[in-house]
């Protein structure tokens, strides 16, 4: 459950709108202010990926009410709309970058995509100085549940090489695109975990709308909660408490 029950809530955002727009993947800044204000008022402490690694590998204690803010893909609005709020509210965030989507000066590795505008290298570098840490999110937003293990190995290397080439510091951490992993084949899932370890990926996150209890049982299978822009504020609080999956099941039964 949530931090009050000995768990680690990990919230998963995507796009941040500076206006009034919101949808399944987009939270606007007015609503995000409510989220950040709530976390601060209730005494939550936001964590970097490196904080969680230090807790797991060096046994450094976590604060009494920990929470992780994560964002997937690396949209440019994470810089223009999110970053100022991180500094205003003193909130740490972790952004999982699609390496081929980042806008570089040469753009020779920019992958065409229909997903929107993505951050520039200079913007990523600025954010990395204080309020943001970065992790891996594939090279071109492919699902590892659909790739073979050799294809995954190639993608991991390509992703890490591109981010290193751009000079963007990255934590040894991966977020599965679409929250996906092999759900039906236990052997393939275990082989994936071993492959991540071979490539010095030391944490990996899925999306399960659940909160893992501490200590974390599997560092390559950490749960995250998708935060939708369609959430009313009370549902955000339910998510932080760790009851969102139970609520969603109840809601589907009542329909």
Note the topology.
Layout: E1 7-8, E2 10-13, E3 15-17, E4 26-28, H1 29-41, E5 45-46, H2 49-58, E6 66-73, H3 77-89, E7 93-97, H4 121-127, E8 132-136, H5 149-166, E9 173-175, H6 186-198, E10 203-205, E11 212-213, E12 225-226, H7 233-241, H8 244-254
Parallel strand pairs: 2-6, 2-12, 3-4, 5-6, 6-7, 7-8, 9-10
Antiparallel strand pairs: 1-11
Explain what the structure shows.
This protein has 255 residues and is of the alpha/beta class. It contains eight helices and twelve strands. The strands form four sheets. Strands 2, 5, 6, 7, 8 and 12 form a six-stranded parallel sheet that branches. Helix 1 packs parallel to helix 3 and helix 5 runs parallel beside helix 6 (186-198). The model has no long low-confidence stretch (mean pLDDT 91).
What can be said about this structure in brief?
The chain is α/β, with parallel strands linked by helices and 255 residues long.
Radius of gyration (CA) equals 17 Å
Q: How would you spell out the order of helices and strands?
A: EEEEHEHEHEHEHEHEEEHH
Kindly name the structural category: alpha/beta
The rough form would be described as globular
* Range of helix content: 25-40%
Percentage beta strand: 15-25%
**What is the tally of beta strands?**
12
Tally the helices.
8
Descriptive terms for the model:
globular, alpha/beta, 255 residues, 12 strands, 6-stranded parallel β-sheet, two-stranded antiparallel ribbon
């Amino acid at each position: 459950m949530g931090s009050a029950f000995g768990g680690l809530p990990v919230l998963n955002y995507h796009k941040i709108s500076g206006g009034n727009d919101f949808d399944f993947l987009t939270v606007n800044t007015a609503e995000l202010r409510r989220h950040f204000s709530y976390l601060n008022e209730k005494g939550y402490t936001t964590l970097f990926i490196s904080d969680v690694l230090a807790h797991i590998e060096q046994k450094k204690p976590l604060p009494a009410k920990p929470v992780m803010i994560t964002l997937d893909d690396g949209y440019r609005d994470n810089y223009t709309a999110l970053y100022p709020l991180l500094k205003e509210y003193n909130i740490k965030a972790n952004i999982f970058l699609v390496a081929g989507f980042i806008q570089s000066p040469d753009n020779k590795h920019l992958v065409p995509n229909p997903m929107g505008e993505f951050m520039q290298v200079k913007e990523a570098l600025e954010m990395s100085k204080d309020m943001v840490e970065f992790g891996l999110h594939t090279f071109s937003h492919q699902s590892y549940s659909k790739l073979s293990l050799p294809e995954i190995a190639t993608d991991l290397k390509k992703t890490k090489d591109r981010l290193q080439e751009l000079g963007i510091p990255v934590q040894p951490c991966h977020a599965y695109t679409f929250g996906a992993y092999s759900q039906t084949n236990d052997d393939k899932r275990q082989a994936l975990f071993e492959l991540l370890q071979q490539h010095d990926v030391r944490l990996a996150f899925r999306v399960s709308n659940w909160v893992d209890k501490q200590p974390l049982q599997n560092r390559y299978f950490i749960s995250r909660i998708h935060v939708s822009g369609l959430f009313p504020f009370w549902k955000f609080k339910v998510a932080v408490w760790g009851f969102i999956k139970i609520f969603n099941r109840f809601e589907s039964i009542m329909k």
